Amino acid sequence: MTLHLTDHRHGFGPGFTAVTRFDEQEDNTGIGFGVLKMTEGEVHAIDTTHEVACLLMQGTAEVSAGDKTVLFRRGSLFDESSSCVHVSAGVHLRLTAQTDCEFTVYEVANARHFAPRFYGPEDVPNEHRGKGQVDGACYRFVRTIFDGTNSDEHAELVLGEVITMPGRWSSYPPHHHPQPEIYHYRFTEPQGYGHAELGDDVMKVKQYDTVKIFDGFDHAQCAAPGYGMYYAWVIRHLPDNPYTVPDFTEEHTWVMDKNAVFWKPSDVG
After folding, report:
1. Domain range enclosing 187
2. pTM score
3. Which of 32, 62, 229, 243 could form a disulfide with 223 if both were Cys (CB 3.0 to 4.6 A apart)?
């Protein structure tokens, strides 16, 4: 079983690099995930045969799908929110790099059709989760790009981002859900790191790592002090069981109360 993917810690080369596929023989999440790096002036065009989402990580690109074209810009994963295009099968998708740029690409074997949708920073605010709880130890930004509330009913993907503050926790309290998920990590410094829980197992995650998450695995995260931790998270709806909200591990839900009483040393203000 290989749930922690570490082969790309030195970064991704030009063009498209597949990290996972939606039809893998082992530990298959049913989600294809990869990284597309483009140089200024390069064009990447595909006629989709499955549901696809392209999330801009860095740079400026013109994105066309259907009869609409939108300019995406992003200078910082940490300080700027998301720009993403989400399309079904049967769409001509065209990405034109205005500068060197990078996308993460997500795919599921969904052949149903729906209209292309574009999401920009104005559509994806930072949700301030955990603020005021347990001394702010799990304060983080959550950016839900699209889910069942704003995507087409025929879509099978859910996509978002989390910004974990240095030295703090995210995806906390520990939670789980039956729908498979993938996390992909970046850090504010190349030597940054954090820890990812999969049930009782803890993995040290570093720049460009990816983790597969399956049913029943609680998956809380934390970032090392001094390093901001970003992860893109993508979930696949299951037939007759779409993702809505996670199930929190009951014994830790008390920390969600802003007035929760917990131990602190007497000489700490």
Report:
1. 12-238
2. 0.97
3. 229
**Distance from C-alpha of 58 to C-alpha of 104, rounded to nearest angstrom:** 10
- Bridge partners (DSSP) listed for residue 127: 142
Q: Which residue has the tokens 């509330």?
A: 149
Q: What is 210-227 written as a DSSP string? A: EEEE-TT----EEE-TT-
Given a contact cutoff of 8 angstroms between Cβ atoms, the answer to whether 220 and 212 are in contact is no
What would the two tokens of residue 154 be?
């025929």
What CATH number should be reported for the domain holding residue 54? 2.60.120.10
Q: Tens digit of pLDDT for each residue in 140-155?
A: 999 999 999 999 999 9
* Residue 214 within any structural domain of the chain: yes
Torsion of the alpha carbons at 211, 175, 125 and 204, rounded to the nearest 10: -30
166: preceding bond cis by omega (within 30 degrees): no
Burial readout 216-239 (b: 16 or more C-beta within 10 A, e: otherwise):
ebbbbbbbbeebbbbbbbbbbbee
